Every structure is written in structure tokens, then in C-alpha cells.
Amino acid sequence: MDSLDLVKARILFKLARRRNWGNSHTAFDDLKKGFKPRDHNSVKEAAEELIKENYLFKKPTGYGLHVSLNHEKSKEIKEKIIKLLGVEIK
């Protein structure tokens, strides 16, 4: 299992746990919170890939980039979290 996939799953889990779906968004820079400082570059890379894979929506704001989960991919997101982290999201 790729460590970047685990980082992606942790990001998805964090946003799902916070219920950041659709219009509920959080700052892109806050995604690294909860990760060790040495992993911050991996978090940024993983988040950018999640945006390209359409799991995360971008929302540019006047105070920085924000992201939220794509509610249309909720089933895939939940399956990915369960598969990689073994945690279920309701």
C-alpha cells in the first residue's frame, strides 16, 4: 500500500468526520493539521491529487483556497476510507 494513499485516506476521513461536504468547506492550509511536520509536503501533494481526481472541490476565497468533499463521490470516498483505514463513516 502506498503511503500517499494513506495520506489521502486520512485527509478524506478528516473532512468526512468534520462533515465538510459540498458547501461546507475548510482551508486548504488546515489540511496539514494533525500530521507530523515532516509529512506536510505529502499532505499538500495528496490533497492536490484528490482535487485532480475530483474527490475534493476547490473554492477560491479572498482569504485563500478552501476545499470540500465531492458529495457525488460519497460512496467511493467512504469505501476508500474503510479499505485503507478500517474506519466507517456514517
CATH architecture assignment name: Orthogonal Bundle
Task: Note the run of SSEs as H and E.
Answer: HEHEEH
What is the H level of CATH, i.e. the homologous superfamily?
A: Winged helix-like DNA-binding domain superfamily/Winged helix DNA-binding domain
The quaternary structure here is single chain
Query: In total, how many domains does the architecture comprise?
Result: 1
- What helical percentage do the residues reach? 40-55%
List unreliable stretches of 5+ residues: none
> How would a textbook summarize the main sheet?
3 strands, antiparallel
If strands are numbered along the chain, what order do they take across the biggest sheet? Answer: 1-3-2
CATH T-level topology: Arc Repressor Mutant, subunit A
Which whole number gives the mean pLDDT? 94
Find the structural class using helix and strand composition.
alpha+beta
Shape: globular
Task: Assign the CATH class.
Answer: Mainly Alpha
CA(first)-CA(last) distance: 25 Å
Hey, roughly how much beta strand do the residues contain? 15-25%
Q: Provide a count of the helices.
A: 3
Query: What is the number of beta strands?
Result: 3
Over all CA atoms, what is the radius of gyration?
12 Å
Notes on the structure:
The protein is of the alpha+beta class. It has one domain (3-85): Winged helix-like DNA-binding domain superfamily/Winged helix DNA-binding domain (Arc Repressor Mutant, subunit A, Orthogonal Bundle). It is built from three helices and three strands. It has helices at 3-17, 40-52, 74-85, and strands spanning 26-27, 56-61, 64-69. Strands 1-3-2 form a three-stranded antiparallel beta sheet. Strand 2 (56-61) and strand 3 form a beta hairpin. Helix 1 (3-17) crosses helix 3. The protein is globular and about 35 Å long. The N and C termini lie far apart (25 Å). The relative contact order is 0.23. The model has no long low-confidence stretch (mean pLDDT 94).
